[in-house]
Automatic annotation (TrEMBL), chain A:
The keyword GTP-binding applies. It comes from Anaeromyces robustus. InterPro entries: Ciliary_GTPase, P-loop_NTPase, Small_GTP-bd, Small_GTPase_ARF/SAR. Keywords: GTP-binding, Hydrolase, Magnesium, Metal-binding, Nucleotide-binding. This is p-loop containing nucleoside triphosphate hydrolase protein.
Automatic annotation (TrEMBL), chain B:
Gene3D superfamilies: P-loop containing nucleotide triphosphate hydrolases (3.40.50.300). GTP binds at residues 23-30, 69, 125-128. One of its GO terms (molecular function) is GTPase activity. It comes from Anaeromyces robustus. Belongs to the small GTPase superfamily. Arf family. InterPro entries: ARL2/3, P-loop_NTPase, Small_GTP-bd, Small_GTPase_ARF/SAR. One of its GO terms (biological process) is protein transport. Keywords: Golgi apparatus, GTP-binding, Lipoprotein, Magnesium, Metal-binding, Myristate, Nucleotide-binding, Protein transport, Transport. This is ADP-ribosylation factor-like protein 3. The keyword Transport applies. It is found in: Golgi apparatus.
Amino acid sequence: MVYCKCCGCITCFRCFESDKKKSDGIVFLTIGINNTGKTTFLHRMMNDKVEEPTPTWGFTTETVKFKKRNITLYDVGGSPSIRGIWVNYYAETYGIIFFIDVSDEECITQSKEILETILKDEKLKDKPILIFANKVDKIEKFEYMETYNKLNIESLISQGITSVNKILLYPCSSLLINKERDPRIDSGLEWLITRVNDDRSYIENKVKNDTKKQNREFILEQEEKQKRVEEYKKLRAQQEVDQKQQEQLVSNTTNNEEIPLISKDKSKSRSVRSVKVYPEEILPSPE
Amino acid sequence: MGLLSLLRKLKRSDKEVRILFLGLDNAGKTSILKRLADEDISEIRPTQGFNIKTVQKDGFKMNVWDIGGQKAIRPYWRNYFESTDILVYVIDSSDRIRIEETGIEFNTLLEENKLAGVPVLVFANKQDLPTALPASEIAFGLNLHAIRDRQWQIQACSAKNGDGIQEGMEWALKTNK
């Protein structure tokens, strides 16, 4: 039996409203190597039938209803050349949903290193992380401890990068099972939401402060870019002027070279003429 | 919503997608469009107005509007924003310097009310050239990493050899569903 916090009754509208409000605004970021099923997971949460989305080379966001809560999911691309954008979403996220493909050994090895790097980021400090061991439908038997050890989770905990109750490895399949979403996805997400709610005020504060800081950084970046572009434009205008001058100079010098040629010709022609003229000049002279 | 735009909306069938191609001059908008329509791309002159092509794909009718990128034409872009389903922004990804420049033009574009929430596909064209930038740097140059209110996707492509163009359009169609 669930009793409400405000008046102790079983269900009260006020509580329900405040609970709904409280859950609004939760943001989860899904990351992981390319082709681990992040976008397919997003489609499962949207309750549509998409099974094979195109590889993501960017950013997708959806706000979905989950157990009467509104959750905003950020889905980003996982290919090596786009991973650089991940860090821009850490500030706003309340927790991380990390995807691995358990049917791919290489993916697990790579994920181990990536996991350590992202968890060391200051903006993700003390935020919960759910690791979905996805594509269990593709393998015969999922060895939980084996994957756990391969990801080096124990060492992450002992180094203090994360803590026991902030990290969970959970198997799932992002494909439809009997036309339904895998119930393990729901259980995993519920764990993540519970962990967020445990530390709700701390995380909310951190998100607020980090987001503010980040937005300031974005504005600064944009201003710097604007300045750089202005400088490019000036530089390019200057280059165009220089080029024109250069061209003029070149044409002038060619003119200079041509002038003696012409003048030579002229002198030649003059001399020729003068030769012609000579007798004429001579002619009147006797007059 | 005015009566005219309402009628226009009613007239359009569900299977129709309106795609707007924008980008600076010499980015390759027309070349990509011609590639889509399987036309010859060897002789393309700067677009001094606009090209409209209807391309059939996966049972969808894509109305693609390609508007010239010359500086003098850019103020007219806004006349074509209405009822756009997907915005395709074409950039020359081999030109490091111009990405930030096109980024500023692009960000003013995104502030337009009529384009609010419209998904963006960035065609990072000229990937056949060795100086092409990786996707995350293009995202930074265009300020995509600060976007939270719409979907975006970078598709590396080359209008010259046709790579990536089909994939980009597939994303556009799936996103529009």
